[in-house]
Amino acid sequence: MKIGIASDHGGFEIKQQLKHRLIMLKYTVIDFGNTINNPVDDYPDFVMPLAKAVAKGEVERGIAVCGSGVGASIAANKVDGARAALVHDHFSAHQGVEDDDMNILCLGGRIIGIEKAAELSETFLKAKFSHAERHLRRLRKISYPENFISGYYF
Ligand code: RB5
Hints:
This protein is of the alpha/beta class. Helices cover about 45% and strands about 20% of the residues. Helix 4 links the parallel strand 4 and strand 5 (about 105-110). The mean pLDDT is about 95.
């Protein structure tokens, strides 16, 4: 599986270690940066290109790391077709894919360590969207938010 990874300085160390772990597990990992630990860099500069690549299908899934994971998830979700979430628990790492077709996992590099980050990433990458009708219906309802009124999708 070809995946993308990105971080700012807040997630840099975890990104570097995670990239190595995922390569060892035979994932093809495209690094969207930052490639150096620059304490004044900005997470959108790396997370937005990653989210665009995921949305365009250039990479199958993405992992975005910032200090808390919050900024990365907010930035990624600005890109149409990106479904990103900040996840620090095992259940959500697979259920977010199975039910919600999450395609970008966001992690807080200042919150969790490499073992937890690796375990969550592997769980996320192995999970598959169920394509169940109820989940497809829910995704349709958020596809065009401007057309959504009181539970109905127009
Ligand atoms: C950067 O210092 C930090 O604000 C950023 O990595 C992230 O935590 C934002 O959500």
